Amino acid sequence: MINKTMMAVAIGLALSGCEDGGNGSSSSSVAIGSGNGSSSSSVAIGSGQFKDSNTSGISYESGGKSGVTNENGDFSYEIGKEITFSVGNVVLGKSIGKALISPVDLVVGGNSDTLAVKYIASFLMMLDTDQDATNGITISTNVQDIAFNWPQIKFTARHFTRALKGIIPQVNDANEGISHSLPTADIAKRHLEKTLRCAHAGAYYGNYTGANNGNLAFMISADNGNVTGLSYSVPGNELTELSNNTAINHGQQVSFAAENSSKQVIFESQFDSLQNVSGDWTDTINNLSGAFSVTRMGGAIDTTYRYTGRYIGDEHGMYSIDLDSSNKLTGVAYNIKTNQLWTISGNHSGEDFIATSSSGANISGTLNTATGALSGNWSNSTISYSGTFTGSGCQLN
Predict the structure, then answer these.
(1) What is the CATH number of domain 298-397?
(2) Which pTM was predicted?
(3) Structure confidence by residue, pLDDT tens digits, 65-124
(4) So where are the chain's domains?
(5) Helix and strand totals (H; E) in the chain
(6) Which CATH class is domain 201-296?
Protein backbone atom coordinates (compact mmCIF):
# COMPACT_ATOMS: atom_id res chain seq x y z
CA MET A 1 0.00 0.00 0.00
CA ILE A 2 1.59 2.97 1.23
CA ASN A 3 4.66 2.56 0.67
CA LYS A 4 13.76 26.25 12.36
CA THR A 5 14.38 21.93 13.42
CA MET A 6 14.35 18.15 13.91
CA MET A 7 16.05 14.93 13.05
CA ALA A 8 18.53 15.63 10.40
CA VAL A 9 19.97 12.67 8.70
CA ALA A 10 23.11 12.97 6.56
CA ILE A 11 22.77 10.22 3.93
CA GLY A 12 25.96 8.28 3.34
CA LEU A 13 27.64 9.14 0.10
CA ALA A 14 31.08 7.78 -0.02
CA LEU A 15 34.43 8.61 -1.37
CA SER A 16 34.51 7.26 -4.91
CA GLY A 17 30.92 6.07 -4.48
CA CYS A 18 31.54 3.95 -1.35
CA GLU A 19 29.92 4.57 2.02
CA ASP A 20 31.97 6.62 4.45
CA GLY A 21 32.73 4.15 7.19
CA GLY A 22 29.03 3.42 7.64
CA ASN A 23 28.39 6.64 9.53
CA GLY A 24 25.92 8.02 7.02
CA SER A 25 27.78 11.26 6.31
CA SER A 26 28.69 12.53 2.87
CA SER A 27 32.32 12.62 1.86
CA SER A 28 34.64 13.93 -0.78
CA SER A 29 38.34 13.87 -1.54
CA VAL A 30 40.74 16.79 -1.28
CA ALA A 31 44.23 16.55 -2.79
CA ILE A 32 47.04 17.87 -0.61
CA GLY A 33 50.47 18.22 -2.21
CA SER A 34 53.68 20.18 -2.35
CA GLY A 35 52.39 22.46 -5.09
CA ASN A 36 55.07 21.40 -7.59
CA GLY A 37 53.21 18.33 -8.76
CA SER A 38 55.81 15.96 -7.37
CA SER A 39 53.65 14.34 -4.70
CA SER A 40 50.22 14.56 -3.17
CA SER A 41 47.97 12.74 -0.76
CA SER A 42 44.21 12.54 -0.63
CA VAL A 43 42.26 13.58 2.47
CA ALA A 44 38.71 12.27 2.75
CA ILE A 45 36.24 14.91 3.93
CA GLY A 46 32.94 14.04 5.58
CA SER A 47 29.98 16.21 6.53
CA GLY A 48 27.43 16.03 9.30
CA GLN A 49 25.05 17.98 11.53
CA PHE A 50 25.36 19.25 15.08
CA LYS A 51 22.07 18.88 16.89
CA ASP A 52 20.66 20.16 20.11
CA SER A 53 18.02 21.17 17.62
CA ASN A 54 19.82 22.36 14.48
CA THR A 55 22.51 24.58 16.00
CA SER A 56 24.18 27.44 14.13
CA GLY A 57 27.09 29.58 15.25
CA ILE A 58 29.31 26.85 16.75
CA SER A 59 32.95 26.86 15.60
CA TYR A 60 34.50 23.52 14.63
CA GLU A 61 37.93 22.21 13.69
CA SER A 62 39.00 18.81 12.37
CA GLY A 63 42.48 18.41 10.96
CA GLY A 64 42.73 21.02 8.23
CA LYS A 65 38.97 21.67 8.16
CA SER A 66 37.41 24.46 10.21
CA GLY A 67 34.38 26.70 10.09
CA VAL A 68 31.15 27.68 11.81
CA THR A 69 27.95 25.64 11.70
CA ASN A 70 25.18 27.10 9.55
CA GLU A 71 21.42 27.24 10.21
CA ASN A 72 21.17 23.47 9.64
CA GLY A 73 24.01 22.73 12.03
CA ASP A 74 26.20 21.54 9.11
CA PHE A 75 29.92 20.93 9.58
CA SER A 76 32.78 19.24 7.72
CA TYR A 77 35.51 17.02 9.10
CA GLU A 78 38.46 14.91 8.05
CA ILE A 79 37.24 11.32 8.08
CA GLY A 80 38.86 9.30 10.83
CA LYS A 81 39.89 12.37 12.82
CA GLU A 82 38.34 14.07 15.82
CA ILE A 83 36.34 17.27 15.50
CA THR A 84 36.36 19.91 18.24
CA PHE A 85 33.41 22.26 18.83
CA SER A 86 33.58 25.61 20.60
CA VAL A 87 31.86 28.95 21.09
CA GLY A 88 34.55 31.60 21.13
CA ASN A 89 37.04 30.62 23.83
CA VAL A 90 34.68 28.02 25.36
CA VAL A 91 35.47 24.50 24.18
CA LEU A 92 32.33 22.36 24.27
CA GLY A 93 34.14 19.10 23.62
CA LYS A 94 35.27 16.80 20.85
CA SER A 95 34.15 13.64 19.08
CA ILE A 96 35.21 11.44 16.22
CA GLY A 97 33.66 12.91 13.08
CA LYS A 98 30.32 11.40 12.03
CA ALA A 99 26.95 12.28 10.49
CA LEU A 100 25.20 13.35 13.69
CA ILE A 101 26.90 14.90 16.71
CA SER A 102 25.10 16.18 19.80
CA PRO A 103 26.20 17.17 23.32
CA VAL A 104 26.04 13.46 24.18
CA ASP A 105 29.09 12.84 21.97
CA LEU A 106 31.20 15.62 23.49
CA VAL A 107 31.64 13.96 26.89
CA VAL A 108 33.52 10.70 27.41
CA GLY A 109 30.93 7.97 27.94
CA GLY A 110 28.19 10.58 27.71
CA ASN A 111 24.44 10.03 27.66
CA SER A 112 21.46 12.27 28.28
CA ASP A 113 21.72 11.66 32.05
CA THR A 114 25.36 12.75 32.24
CA LEU A 115 25.53 16.06 34.10
CA ALA A 116 28.13 17.60 31.77
CA VAL A 117 25.97 16.70 28.74
CA LYS A 118 22.97 18.44 30.30
CA TYR A 119 25.08 21.50 31.14
CA ILE A 120 26.40 21.78 27.56
CA ALA A 121 22.84 21.54 26.22
CA SER A 122 21.66 24.13 28.76
CA PHE A 123 24.51 26.49 27.81
CA LEU A 124 23.65 26.29 24.10
CA MET A 125 19.95 26.87 24.78
CA MET A 126 20.84 29.95 26.86
CA LEU A 127 22.79 31.39 23.91
CA ASP A 128 19.88 30.95 21.47
CA THR A 129 18.92 34.28 19.91
CA ASP A 130 15.13 33.95 20.25
CA GLN A 131 15.15 31.73 23.37
CA ASP A 132 13.04 29.10 21.62
CA ALA A 133 15.18 26.04 21.02
CA THR A 134 12.30 24.13 19.42
CA ASN A 135 12.83 26.08 16.19
CA GLY A 136 16.60 25.66 16.26
CA ILE A 137 19.43 27.24 18.23
CA THR A 138 21.06 30.33 16.71
CA ILE A 139 24.17 31.85 18.24
CA SER A 140 24.50 35.37 16.85
CA THR A 141 27.76 36.71 15.43
CA ASN A 142 27.80 39.30 18.24
CA VAL A 143 27.77 36.52 20.84
CA GLN A 144 30.35 34.51 18.90
CA ASP A 145 32.65 37.55 18.98
CA ILE A 146 32.36 38.36 22.69
CA ALA A 147 32.74 34.68 23.57
CA PHE A 148 36.44 34.94 22.71
CA ASN A 149 36.78 36.96 25.93
CA TRP A 150 35.16 34.30 28.11
CA PRO A 151 37.12 31.85 30.26
CA GLN A 152 36.78 28.12 29.68
CA ILE A 153 33.63 26.79 31.36
CA LYS A 154 33.91 23.61 33.42
CA PHE A 155 30.80 21.72 32.38
CA THR A 156 31.56 19.05 34.99
CA ALA A 157 31.60 21.53 37.87
CA ARG A 158 28.95 21.31 40.59
CA HIS A 159 28.64 25.10 40.54
CA PHE A 160 28.28 25.38 36.77
CA THR A 161 25.55 28.03 37.04
CA ARG A 162 27.81 30.36 39.00
CA ALA A 163 30.28 30.43 36.12
CA LEU A 164 27.59 31.92 33.87
CA LYS A 165 26.58 34.81 36.14
CA GLY A 166 29.02 37.13 34.42
CA ILE A 167 28.36 35.72 30.94
CA ILE A 168 24.56 35.96 30.69
CA PRO A 169 24.50 39.80 31.07
CA GLN A 170 27.03 40.03 28.23
CA VAL A 171 24.80 37.86 26.04
CA ASN A 172 21.83 40.11 26.85
CA ASP A 173 23.85 43.17 25.81
CA ALA A 174 25.06 41.50 22.61
CA ASN A 175 21.51 40.53 21.63
CA GLU A 176 19.82 43.79 22.53
CA GLY A 177 16.15 43.40 23.40
CA ILE A 178 16.41 39.69 24.23
CA SER A 179 16.46 38.48 27.83
CA HIS A 180 18.50 35.28 28.00
CA SER A 181 18.08 32.73 30.77
CA LEU A 182 19.71 29.42 31.63
CA PRO A 183 17.35 26.42 31.38
CA THR A 184 17.54 23.89 34.17
CA ALA A 185 19.46 20.68 33.59
CA ASP A 186 16.19 18.72 33.44
CA ILE A 187 14.69 21.04 30.81
CA ALA A 188 17.88 20.76 28.75
CA LYS A 189 17.78 16.97 29.07
CA ARG A 190 14.17 16.72 27.87
CA HIS A 191 14.90 18.99 24.92
CA LEU A 192 18.00 16.99 23.95
CA GLU A 193 16.20 13.65 24.22
CA LYS A 194 13.36 14.95 22.04
CA THR A 195 15.91 16.01 19.43
CA LEU A 196 17.65 12.62 19.50
CA ARG A 197 14.36 10.71 19.29
CA CYS A 198 13.44 12.72 16.24
CA ALA A 199 16.83 12.08 14.64
CA HIS A 200 16.51 8.30 14.98
CA ALA A 201 12.76 8.03 14.37
CA GLY A 202 11.60 6.35 11.19
CA ALA A 203 10.93 3.01 9.56
CA TYR A 204 13.63 0.43 8.84
CA TYR A 205 13.38 -2.72 6.74
CA GLY A 206 15.62 -5.69 5.95
CA ASN A 207 15.96 -9.36 6.78
CA TYR A 208 17.07 -11.85 9.38
CA THR A 209 19.12 -14.98 8.77
CA GLY A 210 20.38 -18.02 10.67
CA ALA A 211 18.38 -20.95 11.98
CA ASN A 212 15.29 -19.22 10.56
CA ASN A 213 15.07 -16.50 7.94
CA GLY A 214 12.68 -13.90 6.65
CA ASN A 215 11.73 -10.25 6.37
CA LEU A 216 11.95 -7.71 9.16
CA ALA A 217 10.74 -4.15 9.79
CA PHE A 218 11.05 -1.79 12.77
CA MET A 219 9.39 1.53 13.48
CA ILE A 220 10.83 4.02 15.99
CA SER A 221 8.41 6.60 17.39
CA ALA A 222 9.40 10.27 17.51
CA ASP A 223 7.01 10.72 20.46
CA ASN A 224 8.66 8.44 22.99
CA GLY A 225 11.39 6.48 21.21
CA ASN A 226 9.42 3.24 21.56
CA VAL A 227 10.08 0.53 18.99
CA THR A 228 7.52 -1.70 17.33
CA GLY A 229 8.18 -4.23 14.62
CA LEU A 230 7.09 -7.05 12.36
CA SER A 231 8.94 -10.19 11.36
CA TYR A 232 7.83 -12.60 8.66
CA SER A 233 9.26 -16.11 8.52
CA VAL A 234 9.58 -17.18 4.90
CA PRO A 235 9.87 -20.95 5.62
CA GLY A 236 7.04 -20.89 8.14
CA ASN A 237 4.85 -18.31 6.34
CA GLU A 238 4.31 -16.73 9.77
CA LEU A 239 3.88 -13.04 10.68
CA THR A 240 5.02 -12.06 14.19
CA GLU A 241 4.29 -8.80 16.01
CA LEU A 242 7.23 -7.33 17.91
CA SER A 243 5.47 -5.12 20.41
CA ASN A 244 7.01 -5.86 23.82
CA ASN A 245 9.85 -3.44 23.28
CA THR A 246 12.19 -1.00 24.99
CA ALA A 247 12.67 2.56 23.83
CA ILE A 248 15.96 3.57 22.25
CA ASN A 249 18.56 4.81 24.70
CA HIS A 250 20.17 8.25 24.47
CA GLY A 251 23.83 7.38 24.63
CA GLN A 252 26.74 7.38 22.21
CA GLN A 253 25.84 3.84 21.11
CA VAL A 254 22.09 3.92 20.43
CA SER A 255 20.47 0.53 20.93
CA PHE A 256 17.15 -1.16 21.73
CA ALA A 257 15.57 -4.59 22.19
CA ALA A 258 12.40 -5.87 20.50
CA GLU A 259 10.42 -8.95 21.54
CA ASN A 260 7.19 -10.70 20.72
CA SER A 261 4.45 -10.73 23.37
CA SER A 262 5.62 -14.02 24.90
CA LYS A 263 9.26 -12.86 24.98
CA GLN A 264 10.12 -15.97 22.97
CA VAL A 265 11.73 -14.14 20.04
CA ILE A 266 14.14 -11.35 20.93
CA PHE A 267 15.92 -8.92 18.57
CA GLU A 268 18.81 -7.05 20.20
CA SER A 269 19.79 -4.08 18.07
CA GLN A 270 22.24 -1.23 17.75
CA PHE A 271 22.56 1.66 15.30
CA ASP A 272 25.59 1.29 13.05
CA SER A 273 24.69 4.74 11.65
CA LEU A 274 21.57 6.88 11.27
CA GLN A 275 20.74 4.75 8.23
CA ASN A 276 21.49 1.21 9.41
CA VAL A 277 20.63 -1.00 12.37
CA SER A 278 21.98 -4.51 12.99
CA GLY A 279 22.11 -7.12 15.72
CA ASP A 280 21.29 -10.66 16.78
CA TRP A 281 18.06 -12.55 17.33
CA THR A 282 17.23 -15.54 19.50
CA ASP A 283 14.27 -17.88 19.84
CA THR A 284 14.53 -18.90 23.48
CA ILE A 285 12.01 -21.75 23.33
CA ASN A 286 13.20 -23.47 20.16
CA ASN A 287 16.86 -22.64 20.87
CA LEU A 288 17.36 -20.88 17.54
CA SER A 289 19.46 -17.82 16.76
CA GLY A 290 20.90 -15.69 14.00
CA ALA A 291 21.68 -12.17 12.83
CA PHE A 292 19.76 -9.36 11.16
CA SER A 293 20.24 -6.00 9.49
CA VAL A 294 17.78 -3.28 8.48
CA THR A 295 18.07 -0.02 6.55
CA ARG A 296 16.13 3.23 6.85
CA MET A 297 13.22 3.56 4.43
CA GLY A 298 13.33 6.77 2.40
CA GLY A 299 14.18 10.02 4.10
CA ALA A 300 15.35 13.24 2.44
CA ILE A 301 17.91 15.09 4.55
CA ASP A 302 16.36 18.49 3.78
CA THR A 303 12.71 17.66 4.42
CA THR A 304 10.75 19.75 6.91
CA TYR A 305 8.74 16.97 8.62
CA ARG A 306 9.03 13.19 8.73
CA TYR A 307 6.22 10.76 9.63
CA THR A 308 6.29 7.03 10.23
CA GLY A 309 3.55 4.49 10.80
CA ARG A 310 1.83 1.16 10.24
CA TYR A 311 -0.75 0.22 7.67
CA ILE A 312 -3.10 -2.72 8.15
CA GLY A 313 -6.01 -4.39 6.38
CA ASP A 314 -5.70 -6.75 3.44
CA GLU A 315 -1.95 -6.04 3.50
CA HIS A 316 0.42 -5.22 6.36
CA GLY A 317 3.52 -3.11 6.51
CA MET A 318 5.18 0.16 7.48
CA TYR A 319 5.72 3.48 5.78
CA SER A 320 7.79 6.65 6.02
CA ILE A 321 6.54 9.98 4.63
CA ASP A 322 8.36 13.30 4.25
CA LEU A 323 6.55 16.63 4.09
CA ASP A 324 8.54 19.53 2.63
CA SER A 325 8.08 23.29 2.96
CA SER A 326 5.87 23.41 -0.16
CA ASN A 327 3.46 20.83 1.38
CA LYS A 328 4.57 18.11 -1.02
CA LEU A 329 4.45 14.55 0.31
CA THR A 330 6.97 11.90 -0.72
CA GLY A 331 7.65 8.58 0.89
CA VAL A 332 8.06 4.82 0.82
CA ALA A 333 5.95 1.90 2.04
CA TYR A 334 7.14 -1.62 2.76
CA ASN A 335 5.09 -4.82 2.41
CA ILE A 336 6.46 -7.23 5.00
CA LYS A 337 5.20 -10.43 3.36
CA THR A 338 6.20 -9.71 -0.24
CA ASN A 339 9.36 -7.80 0.73
CA GLN A 340 8.40 -4.99 -1.68
CA LEU A 341 8.90 -1.22 -1.51
CA TRP A 342 6.36 1.20 -2.97
CA THR A 343 6.91 4.92 -3.52
CA ILE A 344 4.35 7.48 -2.28
CA SER A 345 3.60 10.97 -3.59
CA GLY A 346 0.91 13.51 -2.81
CA ASN A 347 0.02 16.89 -1.34
CA HIS A 348 -0.94 18.29 2.04
CA SER A 349 -3.40 21.13 2.66
CA GLY A 350 -4.51 22.27 6.10
CA GLU A 351 -4.75 19.03 8.03
CA ASP A 352 -5.78 16.90 5.03
CA PHE A 353 -3.66 15.05 2.52
CA ILE A 354 -4.19 12.94 -0.58
CA ALA A 355 -1.56 10.65 -2.07
CA THR A 356 -1.03 7.65 -4.33
CA SER A 357 1.49 4.83 -4.24
CA SER A 358 3.32 3.07 -7.06
CA SER A 359 1.37 -0.08 -6.13
CA GLY A 360 -1.80 1.65 -7.35
CA ALA A 361 -3.22 2.46 -3.91
CA ASN A 362 -5.11 5.67 -3.18
CA ILE A 363 -4.33 7.21 0.21
CA SER A 364 -6.20 9.92 2.11
CA GLY A 365 -6.19 11.13 5.67
CA THR A 366 -5.32 13.83 8.17
CA LEU A 367 -1.86 15.05 9.12
CA ASN A 368 -1.42 17.53 11.95
CA THR A 369 2.01 19.17 11.92
CA ALA A 370 1.43 20.66 15.39
CA THR A 371 0.71 17.35 17.16
CA GLY A 372 2.62 15.08 14.77
CA ALA A 373 -0.37 12.72 14.38
CA LEU A 374 -1.62 11.25 11.11
CA SER A 375 -4.22 8.65 10.21
CA GLY A 376 -6.46 7.66 7.32
CA ASN A 377 -7.51 5.03 4.82
CA TRP A 378 -5.99 3.31 1.81
CA SER A 379 -7.51 1.29 -1.00
CA ASN A 380 -6.32 -0.42 -4.16
CA SER A 381 -9.25 -1.01 -6.52
CA THR A 382 -7.13 -3.03 -8.94
CA ILE A 383 -6.80 -5.90 -6.48
CA SER A 384 -9.75 -4.99 -4.22
CA TYR A 385 -7.55 -4.42 -1.17
CA SER A 386 -8.11 -1.77 1.49
CA GLY A 387 -7.29 -0.83 5.04
CA THR A 388 -6.29 1.91 7.45
CA PHE A 389 -3.07 3.52 8.66
CA THR A 390 -1.82 5.46 11.68
CA GLY A 391 1.45 7.12 12.54
CA SER A 392 3.31 10.00 14.09
CA GLY A 393 6.18 12.33 13.27
CA CYS A 394 8.26 15.36 14.11
CA GLN A 395 9.92 18.40 12.56
CA LEU A 396 13.23 17.53 10.95
CA ASN A 397 14.45 20.92 9.75
Answers:
(1) 2.40.160.90
(2) 0.84
(3) 999 999 999 999 999 999 999 999 999 999 999 999 999 999 999 999 999 999 999 999
(4) 15-197, 201-296, 298-397
(5) 5, 26
(6) mainly beta
